Amino acid sequence: MTQDKYEKMNEQIIGQTQAHQPGIEAKMVPEPIFDDKDYKGSGKLDGKVALITGGDSGIGRAVAVAFAKEGANVAISYLDEHKDAEDTIRCIQSYGVQALKIATDISKPESGKELIKKVLHEFGKINIVVNNAGKQFPQQNFLDISNNQLHETFETNIYSIFYLVKSALPHLSSGDVIINTSSITAYNGSPGLIDYSASKGAITALTRSLALNLAKKKIRVNAVAPGPIWTPLIPATFDKQKVEEHGEDTPMARRGQPAEVAPAYVFLASNDSSYMSGQTIHVDGADFTTS
Which of 29, 174, 188, 248 could share a disulfide with 218, CB 3.0–4.6 Å? Predict the structure, then answer.
């Protein structure tokens, strides 16, 4: 799919909102591009098993589909977006691999054990862990960030990674990988998403530290830091005007599509990135003023 087609899609997006996070992809107008038909798999992940949190929609869905194209069996976790999850499973299976969906709240300490147990029961192993699920709650006034909001943001965005990695690590071995979803806000900051930005900064630091810790075990840990991407989290977070203007302030003057981010995860999951660990790939429409 050419960049022109992505730009044309961007022009079709109108202001819209959703009442609850993390949002429903099936309700977006137009729905995000998650499966780039021009992207052809080449067996980079044949025989691998991947687990992707927040894999039912948005970036997680696009990554799940790209992994499937590369030959991986894929498990996705999600909160309660059952239709989105079912649609994603059907798309994964259409590429001839196995798929598993698991509804769980990843912010709970027991969720990591539950996810790994189910993945191992279904597939017998795990090779790729993608920590992708997240939440954000805009507050223009710092004093309006309640303790409950702060806890919910960190429990979902960063604590969940500790829970899942601790459960997955005993089952990972040489050549396996962990990929975390950071954000442009971890580098550029965001005056209206302070707690979210802080949680994403923590993910970046965790990625670097865990990479050093696991280097001798030959388990690589990297991250992707997306800029403004058209996912359900956007209409579930902002008002109609902000949704319509989303991404216009990037040098490319548009938001990105999930299918434009997914190849970065394929690169980090495959042997193509065998000499990379502790690094972050920025997919942000050239908005690298401070990154």
Answer: 174
- 102 contacts 113 by C-beta, under 8 angstroms: no
Is-above-0.90 flag for pTM? yes
Q: What is the CA 234 to chain-centroid distance, rounded?
A: 14
In DSSP terms, 181 is beta-bridged to 224
Catalytic residues: 196
User: What pairing do the DSSP bridges indicate for beta strands 128-131 and 280-283?
Assistant: unpaired
Q: Whose CA is closest to 53, among 104, 7, 92, 122?
A: 104
Q: Which CATH class is domain 45-283?
A: alpha beta
CA-based angle 133:137:141, to the nearest 5?
150
Q: Rounded to whole angstroms, how far apart are CA atoms 201 and 65?
A: 27
| Residues ≥6 apart with Cβ < 8 Å to 257 | 6, 9, 32, 33, 34, 62, 229, 230
